[in-house]
Amino acid sequence: MRPSNLAIISSLITGALYAATALAASWPLDSAGNPASNSITTFYINPMFLWDNRDFINRGRRELNPAMQRLLRYANAAAADTNVYSVTAKVNSLYAPSGDPHDYYSLARYYWPSTAGGQYVRKDGYPNPEIYSIPDSAFLDTMMEDVFDCGLAYFFTGNSTYSDRAAQRLRDWFINPATKMNPNLNFANWIKGTPANANGTTAALEFSRVWRVTDGIGLIRNSPSFTNDDWNALQAWFNDYYNWLIESPRGQAEGNSPNNQGTWYDVQRTTILLFLGQTALAADVQRKVTLSRLLQQVLPDGQQPLELTRPLSWQYSIFNLKAHFTQGWLAQSTGVEYFQFQTNDGRSAAKALNYLMSYTLVNGSGWPVTNIGNFDPTDVVELAKEAFIVYRDVKYTSFVDAVQGKPASWNPFRLWAPYASIDGALRAGAPRMVGKSSVFRLLIICVVLVDFLW
Ligand SMILES: *[C@@H]1O[C@H](CO)[C@@H](O)[C@H](O)[C@H]1NC(C)=O
Ligand SMILES: *[C@@H]1O[C@H](CO)[C@@H](O)[C@H](O)[C@H]1NC(C)=O
Ligand SMILES: *[C@@H]1O[C@H](CO)[C@@H](O)[C@H](O)[C@H]1NC(C)=O
What we know:
mainly alpha
């Protein structure tokens, strides 16, 4: 009797008990009497995972309660915040060099005043705290989180308090004439001391997590809080922004970056093309552009040499890989085999992760280049959890266990991960159970029980 089998059995028995006592499904109805928030369109999150998880909770299973409580904590805070914030919230002295309050403005992270005056100079790896003096990037992050969290909370509860807030945030940031952001990032990551019409430097990184906005929209689109006019206005905004991204000198500079900046640029393009309904083009970006990047960026042993040149070589290796994983999830919506992609000489996203995992386990010992930061395992653990969902290989769960310390809790880490199929049985070493029929599951239970009784 292996301990893992015990885990399988206890999980299955608990599951059966929960299922047996669960009440019939009852979801809130919207004003028209239809089940609220059933019809959703998400591109990064697989809607099947959301439906499965909601159904799982509705059947009385409690394993997702911590994740749900966490989500509602965020969403309730977002719902309680009635302030209007957007790029126009900043005071005059913090306007972009254009002088237009609707222009998004942020400072380049690693640039510092030069003793000679004039243009700021780069000290890679050392963030200048002056970047926090301009509120736009923090507001942008908050808006993206609020829209996403409230969208999810609406989906799981049917409570339109959440969709109301998400819709308001979207209108404030993208639609209302008094507060909207101009659809460009001409003054993002600005290097102080450069002329107001300067080109050539990269810009668009801050919009990389735009999938939170587009998926948030997809979660409330059919709520009573959101109108066709909202939809049309958002489509128009993102159409303009997309054109800026591919036509402007600063957008193009971002796209031409061979390292993580370029990878995240492609993530934005893919996300926005999906949102604009241009799925074939989104697939093209992944297949023809981003997979070629992967080929350039990842060596057969999993090293990412372009990120290794950075003083924060660990952090940037992870950061670039996250962009590829984001593409992997978005590829569910394009049909491109992204996570499965590998070259004959073995370059792949999985290989890059293996490389980082091996150094995580020894706290960076033997890392081949300078790293001025620490070897924080947090994000590698997150990627390993995602990799487990994708590849269903227990080496990832073993890794998470090893880093977190046994017995690791494999609590649901996200409500949009397919928890229902990652129950205790799966992590105990029976990955092939996933997605099989219940008859097959029953068979496995019997086999395990026989093993147990034996
Ligand atoms: C909806 O959520 C809000 C914010 O948490 C809460 O105050 C309200 O009571 C909820 N409404 C229902 C019907 O549960
Ligand atoms: C930057 O590009 C814009 C648009 O192409 C152009 O109008 C502007 O003069 C350029 N700025 C510089 C400093 O070359
Ligand atoms: C990892 O190494 C760093 C120094 O690089 C050290 O500060 C830290 O305590 C180590 N962590 C563990 C878990 O050994």
